[in-house]
UniProtKB/TrEMBL annotation:
PTS EIIA type-2 domain location: 490-629
Name recorded for this polypeptide: Transcription antiterminator
Entry-linked Pfam families: HTH_11 (PF08279), Mga (PF05043), PRD (PF00874), PTS_EIIA_2 (PF00359)
Iron is among the record's keywords: no
PRD domain boundaries: 167-271, 281-387
Alphabetical keyword list: Activator, Repeat, Transcription, Transcription regulation
Transmembrane segments: none
């Protein structure tokens, strides 16, 4: 773009007090809309000068430009790009992405290279044809990728006690937790940390609404709910909150709390309220509506939410939301803006659900209500993440007096950080109906069981704890191996694998390998200097057979591994090596990379493993040997 035309374009936008459409700019400058996009991208190449939106283009100040660019990290950009490609069945124009992200086409192209590395384990690839981008691969894999992207937003304590306390500073969340735990214990009910956070959030929101004269007032039939431990506990919690906050818990609010406690808020309630039995307590219209909404989420975003606890809470919330909307009741959410900024994909799901409700129910849903839906979506994914990091367990034990209850409580108390009990039974024949289970703990004899299992005494002794821990260690080890194998294709690249490259010194190898990483877009041009600086401090050769040169700074453009294997040893400082592994680490990926890196180093540190890898004839055989060795860690 010529300087005079650039200046004319900027001056014209500066003279306008509102957004200028692409059509109006095309007519003014006698060029196509595509050329206008090109102008904008060229001008914005170094910094944001021109903002774009569905309304068109306008000039922005330097201050606004800096703010916008700082808000979106490289990894966030990649997530947005991937989400757009997943959701669009047709092609996506690269310049439309440039407009949305306020970036140049070259920046987007770099992001796409990085994105293709991330999605490689999903057997997906972004292809470009002229200006159009397409995500190529199976729909099943696209669904997995979309779920992964959204799950990443909940990895930092979406529903932690601290986040709830920060959101509601006028309430003592920690004191309230102690009171609830005490009441539940009184009725022999147990909850894990995640469920406790969920209960606290529900109760604080409820109390806050009641204080602001927004109590749910609707017809309820408490007589439908039988008196049981959950009912008695819910009523005592309601009484406690009435006294603590000088409010009145209506029958409708008590009804909701009883249903909440009955919807698997305790792992010890084995006849808990489920999506199947919910219509016995809630109008069938709302149950069907919830099913329809989640089906539409699955259809639009490739995300399947199939969890009874979530479904029950979600249905109750949708029912109350519709009631509030039809009765013009206001509800305030102090975290609305934080949710929009920090969890954009989760918030977008909530907007989509809200829009569907508006169309179906012919109501208007305010922004604060959208945020509460985002809470439910976010807590589901946080729960999903938590369960993926735990061993899922079923327990079989006779239901004789309190034997079953005591067994569960002891297991939960000792192993709550590492396993999750998702099924309890007094009859092993019921196990056929269980879904995915990693471990079975049984106080009854088992025959022909295909699931890893531990036989224990009904009243646990120390030896039983040891058997459970040993099985957990083995299962966690297998899980770590699967995770490491998942990243083999992500961080290893055939173009960065070489055999029998013989150079004169370790400095020559560092220069050669860092230059190759630079040419492939992994590292900045001066990366070799920082690797040499690290090498001069202390040799990165170990085990007299392997060298792992790397930078002390995580300043790489993307994470990757360059490998040279040698049939005969070469000098590396004072050592001799036959495997040279140069690593580039991007700071945004350090958490993902650390587990993988540990697994690879564990392999290379063993002489026999390194010796076996050296004998690989090509990249494919090297990867095959590496995979086999990971299985033996």
């Amino acid at each position: 773009m010529k300087n005079d035309r650039r200046e004319a374009f900027i001056q014209y936008l500066a003279s306008q007090n509102s957004w200028c459409t692409a059509t109006s700019l095309s007519n003014t400058f006698k060029v196509s809309s595509r050329t206008i996009r090109k102008y904008v991208n060229e001008i914005n190449q170094d910094q944001l000068v021109i903002a774009s939106s569905p309304h068109g283009y306008r000039l922005v100040t330097r201050e606004k430009s800096t703010t916008v660019n700082k808000q979106i990290s490289p990894m966030d950009r990649i997530k947005i790009i991937l989400k757009e490609l997943i959701l669009h069945l047709e092609e996506v124009n690269i310049f439309d992405l440039c407009d949305r992200l306020f970036l140049s086409a070259s920046s987007i192209e770099n992001d796409i290279v990085h994105a293709n590395k991330i999605i490689k384990p999903y057997h997906l690839i972004i292809r470009r044809k002229k200006d159009m981008l397409t995500l190529v691969g199976r729909e099943k894999e696209k669904r997995k990728l979309m779920s992964f992207i959204i799950s990443q937003e909940t990895s930092n304590g979406f529903l932690s006690l601290k986040s709830i306390q920060d959101a509601f500073p006028d309430y003592n969340v920690y004191l309230l937790k102690d009171e609830i735990v005490s009441i539940l214990k009184e009725f022999d009910l147990f909850v894990n940390d995640y469920i406790m956070s969920s209960i606290l959030l529900h109760l604080i929101i409820t109390v806050d609404r009641i204080k602001n004269n927004n109590s749910v007032i609707q017809t309820t039939e408490l007589s439908k709910i039988k008196s049981n431990l959950e009912t008695n506990a819910a009523n005592k919690i309601a009484d406690m909150l009435e006294g603590m906050h000088k409010i009145n818990f209506s029958e409708s609010e008590r009804y909701n709390l009883i249903l909440l406690l009955s919807s698997k808020t305790t792992m010890l309630n084995y006849q808990s309220l489920t999506s199947t039995s919910l219509n016995q307590y809630v109008d069938e219209h709302f149950v069907n509506l919830s099913k329809k909404l989640l089906a539409k989420v699955h259809e639009r975003y490739f995300i399947e939410i199939s969890d009874d606890m979530f479904f029950v809470k979600f249905t109750l919330h949708i029912r109350n939301l519709i009631f509030r909307a039809k009765n013009a009741q206001m509800v305030k959410n102090p975290l609305t803006h934080k949710l929009k900024d920090k969890y954009p994909l989760i918030y977008e799901l909530a907007v989509f659900i809200s829009n569907q409700i508006q169309q179906i129910e012919h109501i208007h849903i305010k922004e604060d209500e959208i945020s509460y839906i985002a809470f439910h979506i976010g807590s589901y994914f946080e729960r999903k993440n938590e369960l993926e990091n735990k061993i899922l367990c079923a327990v079989v034990c006779p239901n004789y007096y309190d034997m079953q209850l005591q067994l569960i409580q002891k297991i939960e108390k000792r192993f709550h950080d590492s396993l999750e009990i998702i099924k309890v039974s007094s009859d092993s024949s019921e196990l056929s109906s269980i879904g995915k289970i990693d471990l079975l703990i049984s106080a009854l004899p088992l025959q022909n069981n295909q699931i890893p299992s531990v036989f224990v005494h009904p009243y646990l002794i120390e030896e039983d704890y040891e058997h459970i821990q040993n099985q957990l260690n083995q299962l966690n080890k297998q899980k770590r191996i699967r995770e490491v194998k998942q990243y083999l294709d992500l961080y290893f690249d055939k173009d960065l694998f070489m055999k029998n490259v013989y150079l004169d010194s370790d400095e020559d190898y560092i220069s050669f390998m860092s230059k190759l990483l630079y040419q492939k877009g992994y590292v900045p041009e001066d990366y070799g200097d920082s690797v040499l600086e690290r090498e001069r401090m202390s040799s990165t050769a170990f085990n007299n057979n392997v060298a792992v040169p790397h930078s002390m700074n995580m300043d790489s453009i993307k994470t990757g591994i360059c490998i040279i294997i040698l049939d005969r040893p070469v000098s590396w400082g004072k050592e001799k090596v036959q495997i040279i592994v140069m690593i580039s680490i991007n700071k945004l990926q350090r958490e993902l990379f650390s587990a993988f890196f540990e697994g690879v180093i564990n392999i290379l540190s063993e002489w026999k493993n390194a010796s076996e890898l050296i004998r690989a004839r090509d990249y494919e055989e090297f990867m095959e040997k590496m995979t086999m060795q990971l299985n033996e860690i």
